[in-house]
Amino acid sequence: MSIWSDMSTIVTATLSGDINFKVVQAYRSPAAWYVFGVLTLLGAVLFYYRERFAERLEGRLGHSATKYTHPIIAAVLTIGMLAAFLDPIGDFLKTITGDNVRFLVVFIPVLLILFERTPERTIVIYCYIVMAAIIFIGVVQRFVFSVQVPWSTTIPPLLFMIMAWYGATFNIRMRTHLSFTEFRTKLGRKGQLFWLSFDNVLWLVFCIIAVTTTARVTVNTYDNFAIVLGTDDIMRWWFIITMPLCFILLATRAIENIKEDFGKYRSGDPLIEQAVIGGDT
Q1: Residue 235's beta-bridge partner residues?
Q2: Domain ranges of the chain
Q3: What are the tens digits of pLDDT across the range 195-243?
Q4: What's the pLDDT band for 164 if we cut at 50, 70, 90?
Q5: Which residues, at least 6 apart from 240, have a Cβ–Cβ distance to it below 8 Å?
Q6: Residue 221 in contact with residue 237, Cβ under 8 Å?
């Protein structure tokens, strides 16, 4: 098949959800690099303007949107945890939501973090909380009540994967991830600008590679109907699909860094400043 035909297959099949062996083969072809290379850059631009919208919203509110989003997210995730571990609550919620509990538990937080300036921070925080809660409850169940839900040892590693990559994305924006500031502060302003720009260009290239390869893994997992071990109907691709989105967001952070660096260079502000892990952007 030609590259154009494979590209068309990738786009149309992905949008329609009609994934089969032919589509998986198209994902493995060189056409995937063109499709997901463009998608990475377009998605990065889209996320960039979402970030500007969140900044304007925060300016109008006079404080972070997390003041409103975090309590709702915490409540929704708590309800989801109760439904997961307590069958009576789970059955009740399935009845009143039309068996859409899982969809609502994921959709509502995702919708809310779109209004936040740094969604990575929220993702990391709640992935860590949910992961720790599952492990803690699993330990108590096992050693106190001699029972244990089988997925309590398989879902936490997937949450840790999400937490780690989104945490890296946030720290790239904070300039605390592979920044090498000890060496670059000794350079002149042009040298600093060159290496900072070089870093971000490399991040963009890395993002295109990561989006393409993780998209291949996602569609392969989808085609094989792979489920999370210990569950009956939780699909593994639900977790893996967060990786291409993560690297598109990382590309956005690289673009923001480039824009910020050139702005500082023109204004004469210091290009390299001391950053604190976990600080604010």
Answers
A1: 227
A2: 3-65+115-267
A3: 888 888 999 999 999 999 999 999 999 988 899 988 888 899 999 999 9
A4: very high
A5: 214, 217, 218, 221
A6: yes
pLDDT of residue 280 exceeding 80, the answer is: no
Q: Which of 199, 205, 203, 211 is nearest to 247 (CA)?
A: 211
Q: Residues 193, 270: contact at Cβ < 8 Å?
A: no
CA separation for the pair 165, 241 (Å, rounded): 13
Q: What is the pLDDT of residues 37-78, one digit of tens each?
A: 999 999 999 999 999 999 999 999 888 899 999 999 999 999
Show the tokens assigned to 236.
């593994």
60-96 burial string, b = 16+ CB within 10 Å, else e? eeeebbbeebbeebeebbebbbebbbeeeeeeebeee
- Please compute, for residue 5, the number of CA atoms within 13 A of its CA located in the half-sphere on the CB side: 4
pTM for the model stands at: 0.89
pLDDT at residue 177 in the model: 65
Which residue type is seen at 37? G
How confident is the model at residue 244, as a pLDDT? 95
Evaluate if residue 276 carries a pLDDT over 80.
no
What is the maximum span of the chain, computed from C-alpha positions, in angstroms? Answer: 65
